[in-house]
Amino acid sequence: MTAILQLLVLSAIPVVIFALWSEYFKAARALQSDDENESLELEARIRMAGLLTTIAQLFMFMASGSIRHENPTAGLAGLLITLGALVVQAQIQWSLRVSIAKDPAAAREKIRQETSGGGGVFGRALLWASLGALSHFAIVFGFAAGSLLFANWAGVSKAAMLAIVICSTFAGFGSAMILNFALAPLFMRKVLPAEQISDPELIGKIAESFVRAGLKLPDFWLIKGGETRFANAWVAGFTSGRGWFRPGLFLSESLLKSLDSNELRAVVSHEVAHLSLKHLQRRFFTALSFGIGLIFVAAAVSFVIAVKATPPMVGWMGLLGPVLGVVCVFGIMRYLGSQVSRCELEADHHAVAVMGADVEALISALKKLDGINGIPLSGRPPGQASAMSPLTGHPATEKRIELLRRDFPTPREASEDSRKAA
Ligand SMILES: [Zn+2]
Description:
Blueprint: H1 2-30, H2 38-63, H3 65-68, H4 72-100, H5 104-116, H6 119-154, H7 158-182, H8 184-191, E1 194-196, H9 200-212, E2 219-223, E3 233-236, E4 248-252, H10 253-258, H11 261-276, H12 279-308, H13 311-317, H14 320-353, H15 359-372, H16 389-392, H17 397-407, H18 411-421
Parallel strand pairs: 2-4
Antiparallel strand pairs: 1-2, 3-4
Helix pairs in contact: 1-2, 1-4, 2-4, 2-14, 4-5, 6-7, 7-12, 9-11, 11-14, 11-15, 12-14, 14-17, 15-17
Bound molecules: zinc ion.
């Protein structure tokens, strides 16, 4: 009985936080004036919050393993409670979207389409995401179990056995992360409607920037979906990867349709700059060190509980670990987001200063992409992150344009500045 109560408490935490956030969001929204462009931005924020809550819920499920394994009833209850919590979260998310919509009936219809028709893409994404997570755990578990078998076979002391198991768990964690990073291009073209770019003229235009930077060419992928308002470009995978691991440059169809040659060159230069500046590696090592740090904290907490807690306390103190874990994961995501923002600004600078991209073309491309993605350029205080930033980590476009104009003033502006100074 206590086990089920504990599972309920764990699952309820993300649900309650999400419900409170949703109420706050509704209240804050009521105080603001209407703006046609804003609803897309708000929807993006709601989706992001829903995604984070789902991750928190799945994390709670994985963290409650020891409680669920107490007996078969607890195992079944854990599964049902998590599924129930996910359904309640989806309900909160949908009702929030309907309540902020200017046309609630249209919003309801959109949600219905997403959950039935659009379910294909969502289902595929979910399938591949779970496969990725599963393989991650299998690798970590395999390393730990394998080293335990090895230590038993070698007949080493208890202390040596512990050291071997801990080291190989870390090694397993690192290997799983490397595999996930390396397989990111494969993962993306499985989840998204991707198609290899075959137009030689377009390939020539894109390849030029890679050749200029002295980089090996990745695969070029087009993300189909002309009707969706989504325009973006990004690179994935390790530059040295081959076969399944070959890195990819992904360009959305709407991006290719709306940018002219110069703008496309500027955007590709920005992506090449990410590679030249080794931003993916930087992100990978940050994530890896946070992951290992998190394992350390988790191990320390479980150690303290195992040593210090008296039997009736153990169960409830066991909840501390998962709760701490969720807090840490949110903190890490925030930090990673700010790191991504810094990388964006660096890549903008590198694209112009080193790759020779045209400043005006890059600026107009950024503005066009924001326009397609439904993010208003005006009406937001400067410096405030745009709505898409939690999703893509991109800093507000105003900020990027401001820095580009500061670092690369056009000749006319420069001479005006020097006149003013004189
Ligand atoms: Zn970028």
